[in-house]
Design a protein that fits this description.
There is one protein chain. By secondary structure, this protein is mostly helical. The chain contains 16 helices and no strands.
Length: 568
């Protein structure tokens, strides 16, 4: 054959054979996969068969003593029969059919069948597990409940023993506790009865009830003694102690009605009785808080008693102090009003200042009235001393504020008096200075006095006369008086200083000329200069005279300036 035809045919056949081989391999792998799935499904089915439901049902059958349990067992038998004879057989047939389909290579239908088998198998698993759990609830009930009861009995015996050891600590609750113990004891007997009848429904309810009661009993026995101690001993003792102190303090004259002690004690007694009755029913709700609150109340009352005793002493002491202080302020205000006419006629007080004194006086009257009321309350023992002390403190503060205001107003008047006295002292002083200045001029026989000096002297004299006039006025205007004094003082000091300057200059002139006379015969120029200085001196030109003498003498004596302590 022609090579061109043979070669392509060989290639085609080779490829064709390879494709067939590949298809056969893939088909075989797919078949193995399906077979493996079928094996797993059959394994899961067999596991369902191996579930120990039958043995558990046999256990229940031995325990049946009630109609309820018998009816339940029949229902479980029917369910198990349906699973074993109906659903399991159906599963077996379906698995076989799927296996035949795989053998026939009907993979599409086999896949559908497998999906249905998986759904049915899962449903049977859940149903089987649910049935087994229900059955085990009964088969394991006795073991579980007996275990619980054993533990509960141990706790109960401990509680019973504790109660017997400390019975006295429970006081009026004893009968209730013993009755509760009897009920629990009866519950244990019922448990045995229900167990004998295999009445597991009743057992379950009873076990829960016993567990609750025993836990309640244990908690109650732990907490009740402290509460009984407070309710039956501590609070009654506090009540008696409070009553004793209350009546004693009333006898001693302490007004205590505001505390409402008798009413509160009665309410506490009723509340304690209510709490004890509640405790007899094993109800401890809020008992601890309420009883401790009552104890705190008595602590508060005792503190109030102490406060009243302290307040009595404080009131008696402070009312005396206030009385003394009030008397002092009353006297000051009284004296002011006695002098008010003289003050108003002496000093120029404004209407506003007088009005402020009137306000102080009215406020003082109110304080005096309130003091009398407070004093009578304290004397009559009509109010609690603690309340009186509060009122007394308030009254004392009012008086202090009034006294501060009064002191401020008095300082204003005192200041006026001081200013008047100062003005008189200043007047006396500057008058003396002016006289001294005049006498000094006369003493030193000043040859020539400047006209300006006489003008300033007249101004100073006029200023002094203005002070005298102002002091003679009634009422005195202090502000104007102070201005007059300041003005006159400045003018007089100016005259006084000027007088001293003139006298000093005259003395210096005379001393320089006297000192220079020793050089007259020797130095003609000095003689001429000194003659000129003498002429200037006679004309009242004292500074020029000094300058002329110094200038001439300095040419022959360089110590002249220091000798006469002169400035260059």
């Amino acid at each position: 054959m022609d090579n061109k035809i043979v070669l392509p045919m060989i290639v085609f056949l080779t490829v064709f054979i390879l494709l067939i081989i590949v298809l056969l391999v893939l088909q075989n792998k797919r078949r193995k996969k399906f077979k493996h799935t079928i094996e797993e499904l059959d394994y899961e089915k067999n596991k369902l068969i191996g579930v120990p439901i039958l043995s558990e049902l046999s256990k229940v059958r031995d325990l049946v003593k009630t109609d309820d349990l018998k009816q339940k067992l029949n229902e479980w038998d029917e369910t198990f029969k349906d699973i074993k004879e109906g659903k399991i057989d159906t599963l077996t047939d379906l698995i076989t059919e799927a296996d035949f389909m795989i053998d026939r290579k009907d993979y599409q239908n086999a896949l559908k069948k497998i999906a249905y088998i998986e759904i049915l198998l899962e449903s049977l698993k859940k149903k089987t597990e649910s049935l087994l759990e229900e059955v085990k609830v009964i088969t394991k009930s006795e073991e579980r409940n007996r275990s619980i009861i054993t533990k509960l009995k141990a706790i109960y015996r401990e509680c019973e023993s504790k109660y017997e050891r400390t019975k006295k600590d429970y006081g009026p609750l004893g009968d209730s506790i013993e009755s509760f113990l009897e009920n629990i004891d009866s519950g244990f007997k019922k448990f045995e009865s229900y167990m004998d009848k295999n009445d597991y429904v009743s057992v379950e309810k009873l076990v829960l009830s016993l567990e609750k009661d025993i836990n309640t009993l244990k908690d109650f026995l732990d907490k009740a003694p402290d509460l009984v101690l407070i309710a039956t001993l501590m609070i009654p003792n506090k009540i008696e102690e409070t009553k004793t102190l209350y009546f004693r303090m009333q006898r001693d004259g302490f007004p205590l009605d505001y505390l409402n002690i008798e009413y509160n004690i009665k309410e506490i007694q009723n509340k304690v009785s209510t709490i004890l009755e509640q405790m007899k029913t094993f109800n401890l709700e809020n008992a601890d808080i309420e009883l401790k609150t009552m104890l705190e109340y008595f602590n508060t009352i005792f503190n109030s008693f102490d406060k009243e005793r302290e307040s009595k002493d404080i009131f008696r002491e402070n009312i005396k102090k206030l009385k003394k202080k009030l008397e002092g302020v009353n006297k000051v205000v009284y004296d002011i009003y006695l002098q008010m006419d003289d003050i108003k006629s002496t000093y120029d007080l404004s209407d506003a200042e007088i009005s402020k004194f009137n306000v102080i006086s009215k406020n003082l009257e109110k304080i005096n009235e309130d003091y009398k009321v407070l004093f009578e309350h304290g004397k009559g023992r009509t109010f609690a001393y603690s309340k009186l002390v509060e009122e007394l403190d308030g009254l004392g503060n009012r008086l202090t504020r009034l006294q501060d205001d009064l002191d401020y107003r008095l300082k204003s008047i005192t200041s006026m008096k001081d200013d008047e006295s100062r003005a008189k002292e200043q007047l006396n002083m500057i008058q003396n200075l002016l006289i001294q200045s005049k006498n000094k001029l006369k003493e030193y026989k000043i040859p020539v006095i400047p006209n300006s000096y006489y003008i300033e002297l007249e101004e100073a004299g006029e200023a002094i006369r203005e002070i005298i006039k102002e002091l003679a006025k009634k009422p005195i205007v202090i502000k104007i008086l102070n201005i007059r004094v300041d003005t006159a003082r400045d003018l007089v000091f100016k005259i006084y200083n000027k007088t001293n300057d003139i006298v000093k200059s005259v003395i210096t002139c005379e001393n320089l000329i006297t000192y220079g006379n020793r050089y007259r015969s020797t130095y003609d120029e000095i003689n001429t200069a000194l003659n000129e200085a003498e002429d200037l001196f006679r004309k009242g030109k004292y500074k020029q005279s000094i300058d002329t003498s110094i200038k001439a003498l300095s040419t022959v004596d360089d110590t002249v300036i220091s000798r006469f302590e002169l400035e260059k």
